[in-house]
Amino acid sequence: MSDKPADPAALKKDLKHRMDNTLEVLRKEFAGLRAGRAHASLLEPVVVEAYGSTMPLNQVANVSVPEPRMLTVQVWDRSMAKAVEKAIRDAGLGLNPAGEGQTIRVPIPPLNEERRTELTKVAGKYAEQARVAIRNVRRDGMDHLKRMEKDGDISQDEHKKNSSDVQALTDDAIKHVDEALHHKEQEIMQV
């Protein structure tokens, strides 16, 4: 694997970058889980059939939050309003938009206990996927360090020290995942 960094410091920097990217993906996934309050990022996963292709909602409309339990979607092209409304309804977010010309109102229904429990399970799945991705990054790093030692690029002592640094990076990233999950679960369960 010639695309891997040749020295341990660069390797650690690369691994940290990859773990940080995993945490960023997790934050975006968590933002899409609604906790009973309106938030513009709630509609980020929505894609619209527009002009012969699919495109993200934010490329055909502007999403705003006029009140805590309401989103408004201002469609730029009036002819796209029905397609946007259908895309929001079909996105599996449990939302029922109501069109008024170029403006679409999306009321955010309060969450019942069953839906809250379901959302915490989904949040848990997202967190577990992030943990697995972080562990895979760690495994790549450890394998690379073994290869560097075998090739004579680093000594056995350097391998040991760098392995424990990689493990510390991993533990820190997993801790961030657990904290984010805990925070999201509290947000979801808050009535």
TrEMBL record:
Localisation: Cytoplasm
Residues covered by the Ribosome recycling factor domain: 26-189
Domain of life: Bacteria
Gene Ontology MF terms in the entry: ribosomal large subunit binding
Keyword Protein biosynthesis: yes
InterPro entries linked to this entry: Ribosome_recyc_fac, Ribosome_recyc_fac_dom, RRF_sf
UniProt keyword annotations, A-Z: Cytoplasm, Protein biosynthesis
GO CC terms, sorted: cytosol
One example of a Gene Ontology biological process annotation: cytoplasmic translational termination
Tagged with keyword Hydrolase: no
One Pfam assignment: RRF
HAMAP family: RRF
Family stated for the protein in its record: Belongs to the RRF family.
Known role: Responsible for the release of ribosomes from messenger RNA at the termination of protein biosynthesis. May increase the efficiency of translation by recycling ribosomes from one round of translation to another.
Protein name (record): Ribosome-recycling factor
Protein's organism: Roseospira goensis
Organism lineage: Bacteria, Pseudomonadati, Pseudomonadota, Alphaproteobacteria, Rhodospirillales
